[in-house]
Amino acid sequence: MRIISKAAITEFATTHRTALEPLLHWHGVAKSAAWRHLVDVRADFHHADAVGLFTVFNIAGNKYRLVSVIKYRWQVVYIRNILTHAEYYEERWKL
Hints:
The chain is of the alpha+beta class. It has helices spanning 6-15, 20-32, 38-44, 85-89, and strands spanning 2-4, 49-51, 54-59, 64-71, 76-84.
């Protein structure tokens, strides 16, 4: 998969240092994947969920959430937001 944008990971990690290693792990797995459906995503990340048009990944044991849009046909993952657990439940990211 092509990941857009890794800069979102490094930017989030500047204020949430404990997120860097788990996010880089997610990036490495996602980059080497060839997902065709959510079932494929869940084979790599069991707790990935479809929320409307988004695919949400639990990062670092549910401490953080990575919100993405996956274009399976083009093999692209767009990182929309990376949030703390509390920020995710405020639901402003859905707007």
